[in-house]
């Protein structure tokens, strides 16, 4: 039996995004893309994943994300931690992004750090970093 590739997907809280960036983004489109991408990842055989959303203004956010990183997946260290585009693609969140990357590095040094593009392509980032997790070939 092969081991599960466990992925923690970290992104910006949807409600925070609506309140702070709602006039600049199409939140319904973003939410649908992120949730569809996460669902696709959940369905991939050999992958176990969880989602955690950060509220940038919440003081306890890093205590919570640190606890999530330490807890791992089923008590085992995360194979990878994926950081969504909303966290790294917004210049105003650069400090938060840096703190998050360093927290991941410090708390789960064995985990690969994955990044999605604006298209919220969780599965593609997993495939890049864990090549044995590939999409099945299309039938001819």
Number of DSSP E strands: 4
pLDDT averaged residue by residue? 88
**Radius of gyration based on Cα positions:** 15 Å
Structural class: alpha/beta
Question: Which word captures the global form?
Answer: globular
For the biggest sheet, the summary is: 4 strands, parallel
* Poorly predicted segments: none
Strand content: 15-25%
Number of domains: 1
Overview of this protein structure:
- The protein is of the alpha/beta class.
- It has one domain (5-129): Rossmann fold.
- It is 44% helix and 17% strand.
- It has helices at residues 14-21, 27-43, 61-71, 85-88, 94-107, 122-129; strands at residues 5-12, 47-54, 80-83, 112-115.
- A four-stranded parallel sheet has the order 2-1-3-4, sandwiched between helices.
- Helix 3 (61-71) packs parallel to helix 5 (94-107).
- It is globular.
- The relative contact order is 0.21.
Give a concise summary.
By secondary structure, the protein is α/β, with parallel strands linked by helices. Helix content is 44%, strand content 17%. It has a four-stranded parallel sheet with strand order 2-1-3-4, with helices on both faces.
Give a topology summary.
Blueprint: E1 5-12, H1 14-21, H2 27-43, E2 47-54, H3 61-71, E3 80-83, H4 85-88, H5 94-107, E4 112-115, H6 122-129
Helix pairs in contact: 3-5
Supply database-style keywords.
single chain, 140 residues, alpha/beta, Rossmann fold, four-stranded parallel beta sheet, 6 helices, 17% strand
